[in-house]
Design brief:
Elements: E1 7-18, H1 26-40, E2 50-53, H2 64-72, E3 78-81, H3 88-101, E4 107-115, H4 130-135, H5 144-159, H6 163-177, H7 192-197, E5 200-202, E6 205-206, E7 215-224, H8 225-228, E8 236-244, H9 261-272, E9 281-283, H10 289-298, H11 307-313, H12 329-333, H13 342-352, E10 366-373, E11 378-385
Parallel strand pairs: 2-3, 2-4, 9-10
Antiparallel strand pairs: 1-7, 1-8, 4-7, 5-6, 8-11, 10-11
Length: 388
């Protein structure tokens, strides 16, 4: 069964990432985003009969979906928690579409909120799987910085990728952020030299190549294609979706530079029936610059090993020839905990609805969105479009 064109996103809401916002809680952010997204879709709360959410890093607990349902006073016929790290939000889109197509519900609220800052794991280890804590951390491979640094260094070794090529990802995405009033770092453009002269965090990755934790959240509404046509916004249809998983720790990956982005993207493009050349923009998960480069390669926009040169030769800004993370990406928009991947889905929807304002990609009709969890572990690819 194909989900192509069976459901659409009809409304969204997004909170500007903030550093330590006073008086905010994860559930409070979720309530704000839910209220705004439901209104944006032209619905009443009583019409929401499905819910998908992800646990907050800052307020992690069991039975989180039930806590959200109780807090929002919802009575869903279908509700669940998607736990795929940064791929959770992208994974919600096709799960909502599948639930609607199966007759489980009609309109699904997908929402995440988080109050996250860099001090969260200072006095306790990150909630990584036991195998990583037992076999990786004792040897210095602790946390995402080290894992992605390994990928970057190996890519440089195998393909000759340069630090300047990686730095250009940050530079181009900062241009996008400067056209986004919600972006955490949208006040000043940067240069390749700025990136390379910033503090080395995990060789070869510099400070300006790594996401900055923040608080924030977002929500979107998925409903059937028939219902979507009667809403106030241009529907954004799910044309294709694909997922892939094989490992948790990067040390268990069969190949450090060849990621699971490829099978996930191939499945999404096959379902959608479109080619890479038809894509007007991409919104790849960007916890690090190397993540964007590997995603561009493995999603099929250039050959393996040519990502560095591709980035060097193309303009990744919203007005460029290869628009990438038009909201600034997490590198400049900010990474609001588990809601980080939500910004990529919402920005894709925003562009296709024609609501990109100063950063609107001209005549955008089809976009590719990628969600990435862990250290290139969980992968979800989406093809979104304005026609079903």
């Amino acid at each position: 069964m194909s989900l192509r064109g069976k459901a659409a996103i009809t409304g969204f809401a997004e909170m500007a990432p903030q550093k330590r916002p006073e008086g905010k809680t994860s559930l409070g952010i979720i309530a704000e985003m839910a209220r705004e997204a439901i209104a944006d879709a032209g619905l009443e709360k009583s019409e929401i009969d499905g819910l998908l959410t992800a646990a907050s890093l800052s307020d992690f607990s069991m039975l989180w979906p039930s806590a959200v349902v109780e807090y929002l006073h919802l009575k869903p016929r279908y509700f669940d928690q998607v736990e795929l790290g940064g791929a959770s939000s992208a994974g919600m889109v096709w799960r909502a579409a599948a639930a609607i197509e199966a007759g489980m519900c009609n309109s699904v609220l997908c929402v995440i909120g988080d109050t996250w800052d860099s001090s969260l794991f200072l006095n306790k280890p990150p909630p990584f799987p036991a195998t990583e804590l037992e076999f990786d951390a004792p040897y210095g491979l602790s946390g995402a910085n080290a894992g992605y640094a390994l990928i970057a260094r190996r890519h440089m070794h195998e393909f000759g990728t340069t630090p300047a090529q990686l730095a250009k990802v940050s530079v181009d995405q900062r241009k996008n952020a400067c056209a986004n009033p919600q972006a955490l770092f949208g006040h000043k453009q940067i240069t390749v030299d700025d990136v390379l002269n910033s503090r080395m965090i995990a060789d070869p990755l510099h400070l300006l190549e790594i996401v900055s934790p923040a608080s924030g959240g977002g929500a979107f509404i998925v409903t059937s294609a028939d219902r979507a046509r009667h809403g106030p916004n241009r529907p954004v249809y799910l044309l294709g979706a694909g997922e892939a998983g094989e490992h948790s720790s990067i040390t268990r990956a069969p190949n450090m530079t060849h990621s699971l982005v490829k099978p996930a993207a191939d499945r999404a493009f096959a379902m959608a029936g479109v080619s890479r050349g038809q894509i007007d923009f991409i919104q790849p998960y960007d916890c690090y610059t190397i993540t964007v480069l590997v995603t561009i390669e493995d999603a099929g926009f250039c050959a393996k090993g040519e990502g560095g040169r591709f980035i060097e030769e193309h303009d990744l800004s919203w007005a460029g020839d290869f628009p990438c993370n038009t909201h600034g990406g997490q590198l400049s928009f900010g990474q609001p905990g588990m809601a980080g991947g939500m910004s990529h889905v919402i920005e894709g929807v925003r562009q296709l609805m024609g609501r990109g304002e100063k950063r609107q990609v001209a005549d955008a009709t089809i976009g590719y969105v990628n969600g990435n969890g862990g250290i290139m572990a969980e992968q979800c690819g989406l093809i979104l479009g304005v026609e079903s």
